[in-house]
Amino acid sequence: MGTLLIPDQIVTRTGLQTGQALLIESGMIARLGPVADLQGPGNEEVQLPDQTLAPGLVDLQVNGGGGCLLNDQPTLEGIRTLVCAHQQSGSTTILPTLISCDLPTMVQAREAVEAGLEQNLPGLAGLHFEGPFLDQSKRGAHAAESLRPPATEDMELLEQASQGALLLTLAASHASDDFCTRMAQAGVVLSLGHSAASADEANAAFDRGVHLVTHLYNAMSPLAHRDPGLVGAALADKRVTVGLIADGQHVHPTALRAAWAAKGGERFLCVSDAIGLAGTNLQETQLAGQTVRIESGRCVNQEGRLAGSAIVLSDSLPILVNEVGLTLPQALDACATVPARVLGLSDRGTIHPDLRADLIALDQDLVVKSVWVAGQRLA
Description:
Number of domains: 2
Number of helices: 10
Mean pLDDT: 97
Oligomer: single chain
Number of strands: 21
Distance between the termini: 20 Å
CATH superfamily of the largest domain: Metal-dependent hydrolases
Helix content: 25-40%
CATH topology of the largest domain: TIM Barrel
Shape: globular
Strand content: 25-35%
CATH class of the largest domain: Alpha Beta
CATH architecture of the largest domain: Alpha-Beta Barrel
Low-confidence stretches: none
């Protein structure tokens, strides 16, 4: 027995399809086709009138959610809270993200993620270490005292075998030949961020195999016509995928549009950069030893710095479509297909037979109405 989803339209690899249905069997997408061809005895039919069926979103930068911050609760229970909070809003796969901290906390977080992976926690893809190998001048909301160059113990932690993906954001100043080679051998995905790199320094890191940039424009050397910085180098290099925060606060829509024009659908992705406020009605929390409050829609710490966001990734869809000018399939590429590809998750991120049935149903305002994770509908 399968589950037959009958929406108004479906976003597939080839674009928006109308008059189509999707059959789920054993947690996988079994078939796509005309409604009449898929209807039959034994299948449960789920009508989704005026809704669009889309792939579940993939968020590579989730610091917190549901009132929990990973840095404060680097445990399996903390991981479960993050996964659950973001799945309810349509992010069916996430990378819990630990911002700059001491080595024992990094070890604890990695052990918690490994435990979750061993238990096959649905939606947990691995771990993102955002820091601590960052530039002081571009630390953003990261605690200054937590930043450091990589030491032997850090390398040992990063080189441990893992069941899931491991993403590391670091400044170009720490992306040496030896470091990049060892990380590549360990399967660690490297991303430049929180970096004061010149364009030449950024290009050198790209040549060493660092082909991802964390929250482009934010906490990095900006683009100027005589000093293009990390921003200019990233936009100009066709090998590099850029991540951006499309929350209406971190990046102006025109800057998002410029990044899209430079990178296109293959090298442009969005993240939430969510902190513990995401998925709650809370207005205040703690981050890196400081109080963070929502002020005029912005998460701001006591220094007046932006400190993550309170959005979930699905909140970016209407911004990308209505303010940036992307089509819905293009917006879903940025929030699902491209991030899944960056992590090598070939079984999700798009709608196609034989892929995992991670799905969301969107209403006409692009609000998530229903979520399926591995074919199971969330309550």
